[in-house]
Fold:
Amino acid sequence: MTQPRSISILGATGSIGASTLDLIRRDPGKWRVVALTANCQAADLARLAREFSAEVAVVADESCLAELRSALAGSGIDAVGGATALVEAASRPADITVAAIVGCAGLAPTMAAIEQGRSVALANKEALVSAGDVLTAAVARHGTTLLPMDSEHNAIFQCLAGNNYDHVRSITLTASGGPFRDWSAQQLAAATPAQAIKHPNWDMGAKISVDSATMFNKGLELIEAHHLFPVGLEKLKIVVHPQSVVHSMVEYRDGSTLAQLGPSDMRVPIASCLAWPARMDTPCAPLDLAKLGELTFRAPDEQRFPATRLAREAAEAGGAAALVLNAANEIAVAAFLAGQIAFTRIAVMVEETMTRFSPATPTSLDEVIALDAEARVRARALLELA
Ligand code: NAD
Ligand code: MG
Structure:
C-alpha cells in the first residue's frame, strides 16, 4: 500500500477549507492531516481536527485558544494559538499545504509553507497580490511546486501544460460579473451587503463575494495571473462570462485557444491541485452542455466597475502599488460589510489610498507586512474623513 500523503490546510474552517476536507473525507486512507487552522471558530476547528485526526489545530486569534484547548482535551491533538504558532504549524512538514486563509493575514503562514520546498496549493490570492515578487522569489529559491487553486488560474495552469510561454499570444481570465453585473450606477450606489454576498454561481466566503460584486476579485486575479504566468501584462485579458463554465483560456500564436470548462464548484480546481499531476474523482455532476444551451461573453464595463482598471494600473506601476490596492480593498470591504460605507465607495477608497500612498518596493516579507499595516492605516483614515 502506498503511504498516505500529508496535508495541512490553512483556513480549514472557510469555504475552500470545507471543499478541500470534503474531498479528503471521501478517501481518508490516502491522506494524513498535519495542521488545520482557523482565525477563531474554535468549536468548528476542534470538530474537524478530531474527525481528521490532525496533528495540530491552530487559532490565529489567541483569545480563542482556551476554547480550542478545552474542546480538544484528551484528544492528543496539539492545540495552539497566535500568529507565531500559526507560522510554526505551517512549517511542520507536509507534502502539500492548502493556503486558504482570506486576506493578507495568510501571507506569513503561506510563506512558511513555501519555505518547506514542497507543494503549496494557493487559494489565498491576497498574499500573492501583496507580496508577488517576494513570494515568487521564495518559490524559486526553495524549489517549491506552486499549484494555483483559484479556478481561473487553475484553468490557465491546465491550458498551459506542456506549452511554452513564448508561444502564448494571450491569456483570458473569465469573470462571472458578479450579482450586480446588470445593475445601473444608481442601483449600485444603494447595494446592500446581503445583496453583495449572494453570488449567482459560486458559494464563497463573504470577502471574496463582495470582491466578485465590485470586480476587485478579477482585479486581484489579474495581478495574481501576472505573477503566476509571466507572459507580460499586455497579454492578459478579461472577459465577462455570466455562466461561469469556461474558467479561463490561453490563446497560442497559431490561433489555437485552449480553454478549461467545468461546473462552478471549487472542488474541481481543488481536486486538480490535490492530485496533480495525476487526476482524482470528484462528486461533481458532469457538464451537460446541451442542457446549458448557450455560453455568452462580453467585455467588462470599467465605468460601473473601475476595479479592473485600478488593478491593471497597480500591476503596471509595480513596486508596492498592488499591496496598497489590496490593503485598501480589505479595509473598504470590511467597512462596507459593517454598513459604514456605500458599495460604490469601495473603489473610490482604493483609488484614493493608491493616489495618496506610493511607498518604495518592499524586498522582504517583513517589509511587506509593515507596508500592508501602513496602507491599512491610510485607508482607515479615509473612512474617518468620509
Ligand atoms: P472564508 O472566509 O470562507 O474562510 C477564510 C478562512 O481563513 C477561515 O478558515 C478563517 O477562519 C480564516 N481566517 C480569516 N481571517 C484570518 C486571520 N486574520 N488569520 C488567520 N486565519 C484567518 O474564505 P474563502 O472563501 O474560503 O476564501 C479563502 C481564500 O481563497 C481567499 O483568499 C479567497 O480569495 C480565495 N478563493 C476563494 C474561493 C471560493 O470559492 N471561496 C475561490 C477562489 C479563491
Ligand atoms: Mg477565481
